[in-house]
């Protein structure tokens, strides 16, 4: 009896064990296969979305395909890039010019697609630099940086570039308040002497930026921004923390108050006040650099003044919305009614209502004023609070179906909740320490839904280790159903704080294949090998060189002297897609330059010692790529060697 019982029990346990193992396995394999199917792009097929990820402290933007997570390209923006010569070659060097000189590095945070009627239009991608505040514009036909504007009277250009509904403006706010204008003062005089600015950068039809005006605001840290949509078009919302105005140990001292502020700014009202003469011209120095798509050259302009607006003198331009607690992100939902803050130390996600805010302004439901700026009552503007939102809520995206997704840094999870009921409906862990999340179109009026990319600060134990520094972790999550599902892990470059994505069909047909050689207006371009030549002008030598499979013209040069400055102006005269040539010469302090068909680039070389210097093509362009090379003879300064050049047997004496 006992034995029988025992065997029944053992048998039962075995069955149970088997069932658990078997069902468990089956479920796991199913999920894996299904997930694999969702992200697998068969050879020869294309991804559904282009994703643009900020490179953070790499200063660049990386381009990925979704859902595969494949890396296509790294676009150089705020950091030089020896891979193609960006920031070294004469054409792009001045893009990095600032009031502090040529800066080879910065820290990118927030890519932003240009918008038309609140929907990404595929024309440009803008991105901020956080260290020395600037905004860059990338052309989405060439995927190249074409313009950079410096933001004066600012420190820490973090709340940027957030476009308004039709890209009328991009904004940029000071993360670090500083004396405005800059001044040599004791740091302990923070409260008296420090202030912030909210900058409004106008964008014209060609995409060109221009600093229109700056609003001078109390000395808080302005963290992030979100522009109004639909009914809230005309407004921009900025989070602030450190309303305590601490200048040391902010981790303690800037976490004292229960609530900080969202600054709500009516930019149409600001325009009115400035038109009525309320703006004040102030001396400021900053650079505006634009690269021409015809000459490939950058024109750098030094600007000397800004229009500054005191919000206390322009009633209706700005209000403070108390918001718990040290909020980080501020995101406006696709309807334009809800303004969601990420209260990183708060126990709830506070959601303000735009229409209630307008009522509160109308009824003057003010609890205070700061520097003449009304502070609205929390209860008068709040639409709801999302309870149990995870620990450390930061950023929110929307799916266009009535749901919002918030990243929680401390609890490493995405929390899905419903707009209107404020109920959490789902949550999914991420690995690990989640920062921003991105739903394609998820910060616009037309989210594409389907996917959510989590950008994790750490990928500890997710990949084969590669030394102390690990890649940050991208995770693709399926949000098409009721429950979120993890589909894919993919490693990221730098620190992709934020990202943007667009359906492939919005960009793919417009992607430029080559530059039309007949339209090349570069001042040193040549159209044919027969135009190639070498010209001396004192100690400066200009080499007009053609690159074509599989030689350079000229490929032999003699009569260069130590002390000369040699400019190589190389034109790739190919007219076929994706046939690039590179150019590099021994001992150059500059890296190689990479030339695509129809493109001209220039690099300067200062030979240091006599001898023979080879140069060669760095991009494997044909079966005879390895033959694509040449020699330069360098003689002592003052040596009696005439300047000659040639391609083939005949050497021509330079005129
Ligand atoms: Cu949260 Cu710079 Cu947008 Cu990083 S910021 S995560
Ligand atoms: Cu040209 Cu390799």
Could you walk me through the main structural features you see in this protein, from its secondary elements to its overall organization?
The protein has 655 residues and is mainly beta. Helices cover 11% and strands 44% of the residues. It is built from seven helices and 47 strands. The strands form ten sheets. Strands 6, 7, 8, 9, 10, 11, 12, 13, 14, 18 and 19 form an eleven-stranded mixed sheet that branches. A seven-stranded mixed sheet has the order 42-41-44-45-39-46-47, with no helix packed on it. Strands 36, 37, 38, 40 and 43 form a five-stranded mixed sheet that branches. Strand 13 and strand 14 (209-217) form a beta hairpin. It starts with a helix and ends with a strand. Residues 17-29 have low confidence and may be disordered. The chain binds sulfanyl-(tricuprio-$l^{4}-sulfanyl)copper (K7E) and dinuclear copper ion. Dinuclear copper ion binds at residues 581, 617, 619-621, 625, 628. Dinuclear copper ion is lined by residues 581, 617, 619-621, 625, 628.
Radius of gyration, rounded?
Answer: 29 Å
Uncertain parts: 17-29
Number of DSSP helices? 7
Gap from first CA to last CA: 114 Å
Shape: globular
Bound molecule kinds, no repeats:
sulfanyl-(tricuprio-$l^{4}-sulfanyl)copper, dinuclear copper ion
The major sheet is characterized as: 11 strands, mixed
Query: What is the residue-averaged pLDDT?
Result: 95
Number of strands: 47
User: What fraction, in percent, of the residue positions are helical?
Assistant: 10-25%
Structural class: mainly beta
């Amino acid at each position: 009896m006992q034995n029988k019982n025992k065997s029944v029990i053992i048998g039962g346990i075995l069955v149970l064990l088997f069932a658990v193992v078997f069902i468990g396995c089956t479920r796991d394999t199913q999920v894996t296969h299904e997930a694999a199917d969702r992200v697998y792009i068969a050879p020869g097929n294309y991804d559904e979305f282009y994703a643009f990820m900020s490179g953070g402290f790499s200063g660049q933007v990386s381009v990925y395909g979704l859902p595969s997570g494949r890396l296509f390209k790294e676009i150089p923006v705020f950091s030089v890039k020896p891979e193609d010569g960006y920031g070294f070659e004469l054409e792009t060097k001045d893009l990095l010019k600032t009031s502090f000189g040529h800066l080879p590095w910065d820290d990118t945070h927030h890519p932003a697609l240009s918008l038309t009627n609140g929907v990404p239009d595929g024309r440009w991608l803008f991105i901020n630099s956080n260290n020395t505040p600037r905004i860059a514009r990338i052309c989405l036909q060439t995927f190249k940086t074409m313009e950079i504007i410096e933001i004066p009277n600012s420190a820490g250009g973090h709340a940027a570039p957030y476009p308004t509904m039709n890209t009328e403006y991009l904004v940029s706010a000071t993360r670090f308040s500083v004396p405005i204008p800059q001044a040599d003062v004791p740091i302990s005089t923070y409260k008296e002497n420090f202030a912030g600015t909210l900058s409004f950068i106008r964008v014209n039809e060609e995409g060109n930026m221009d600093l229109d005006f700056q609003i001078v605001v109390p000395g808080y840290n302005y963290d992030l921004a979100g522009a109004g949509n639909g009914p809230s078009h005309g407004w921009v919302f900025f989070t602030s923390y450190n309303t305590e105005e601490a200048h040391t140990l902010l981790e303690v001292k800037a976490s004292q108050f229960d609530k900080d502020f969202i600054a709500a700014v009516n930019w149409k009202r600001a325009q009115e006040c400035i038109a009525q003469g309320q703006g004040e011209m102030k001396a400021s120095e900053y650079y505006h650099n634009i690269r021409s798509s015809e000459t490939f050259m950058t024109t750098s302009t030094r600007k000397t003044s800004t229009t500054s607006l005191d919000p206390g003198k322009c009633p209706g331009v700005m209000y403070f919305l108390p918001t718990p607690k040290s909020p980080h992100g501020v995101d406006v939902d696709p309807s334009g009614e809800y303004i969601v803050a990420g209260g990183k130390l708060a126990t709830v996600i506070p959601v303000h209502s735009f229409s209630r805010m307008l009522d509160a302004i109308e009824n003057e439901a003010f609890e205070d004023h700061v520097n003449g700026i009304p502070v609205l009552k929390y209860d008068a503007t709040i639409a709801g609070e999302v309870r149990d939102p995870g620990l450390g809520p930061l950023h929110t995206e929307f799916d266009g179906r009535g749901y919002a997704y918030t990243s929680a840094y401390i609890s490493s999870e995405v929390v899905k909740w419903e707009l209107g009921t404020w109920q959490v409906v789902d949550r999914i862990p991420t690995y690990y320490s989640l920062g921003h999340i991105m739903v394609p179109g998820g910060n616009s009026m037309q989210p594409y839904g389907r996917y959510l990319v989590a950008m994790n600060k750490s990928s500890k134990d997710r990949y084969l280790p590669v030394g102390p520094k690990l890649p940050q972790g991208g995770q693709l999550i399926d949000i098409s159903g009721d429950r979120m599902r993890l589909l894919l892990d993919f490693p990221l470059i730098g620190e992709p704080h934020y990202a943007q994505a667009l359906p492939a069909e919005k960009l793919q047909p417009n992607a430029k294949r080559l530059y039309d050689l007949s339209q090349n207006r570069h001042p040193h371009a040549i159209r044919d090998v027969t135009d190639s030549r070498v010209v001396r002008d004192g100690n400066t030598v200009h080499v007009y060189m053609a690159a074509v499979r599989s030689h350079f013209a000229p490929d032999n040069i003699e009569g260069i002297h130590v002390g000369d400055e040699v400019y190589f102006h190389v034109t790739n005269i190919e007219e076929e897609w994706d046939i690039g040539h590179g150019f590099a010469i021994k001992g150059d302090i500059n890296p190689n330059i990479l030339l695509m068909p129809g493109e001209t680039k220039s690099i300067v070389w200062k030979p240091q010692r006599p001898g023979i210097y080879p140069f060669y093509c760095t991009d494997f362009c044909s079966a005879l790529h390895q033959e694509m090379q040449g020699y330069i003879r360098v003689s002592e300064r003052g040596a009696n060697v005439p300047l000659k050049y040639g391609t083939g047997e005949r050497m021509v004496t330079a005129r």
